[in-house]
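Design a sequence for this backbone.
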């Protein structure tokens, strides 16, 4: 049996899970989401625990067992706590501002970069000297990670002076400055 798939998902207080055939609906304080179970995977809800079972031992079913459990666990966490990604932006003269649903940044280009913040995502900006920190929070892990990766690709961190966007937990291997002999 799948090591991840066999683990039950604990349902925290304030989160309700409804099983409707192959549809699993999760509702919490941060929103509501649903997930369709693949063929061969079934869910049972008992005593505040959601557990998944599979109907066979094929390679595809074993693979889908763990993946489905991970997706459901992310949805339960998302509607209760939310998913958070932190981006650190360094650079001379770099600054940013959140105006309603628009993220406005000056990141060393000839123009300001304007990004629309998707619905369901909350962005907080902490200003520093020649740096700012973006905290992206949302109920959907996919949407939160997707928006963070779009921002990261605007100007990825370069290894010489650490200028650009980087994730807070990203390890950047620094390079020595180029010298002449």
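Sequence:
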């Amino acid at each position: 049996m799948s090591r991840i798939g066999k683990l039950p998902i604990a349902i925290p207080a304030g989160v309700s899970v409804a099983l409707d055939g192959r549809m699993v609906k999760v509702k919490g304080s941060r929103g509501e989401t649903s997930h369709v179970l693949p063929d061969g995977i079934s869910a049972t809800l008992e005593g505040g625990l959601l557990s998944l079972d599979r109907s066979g031992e094929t390679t595809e079913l074993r693979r889908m067992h763990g993946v489905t459990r991970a997706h459901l666990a992310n949805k339960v966490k998302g509607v209760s706590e939310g998913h958070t990604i932190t981006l650190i932006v360094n650079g001379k003269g770099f600054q940013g501002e959140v105006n309603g649903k628009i993220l406005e940044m000056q990141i060393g280009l000839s123009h300001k970069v304007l990004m629309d913040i998707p619905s369901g995502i909350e962005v907080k900006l902490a200003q520093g000297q020649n740096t700012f920190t973006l905290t992206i929070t949302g109920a959907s892990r996919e949407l939160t990670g997707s928006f963070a990766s779009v921002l990261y690709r605007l100007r990825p961190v370069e290894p010489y002076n650490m200028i650009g966007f980087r994730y807070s937990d990203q390890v950047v291997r620094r390079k020595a400055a180029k010298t002449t002999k």
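The radius of gyration is 21 Å.
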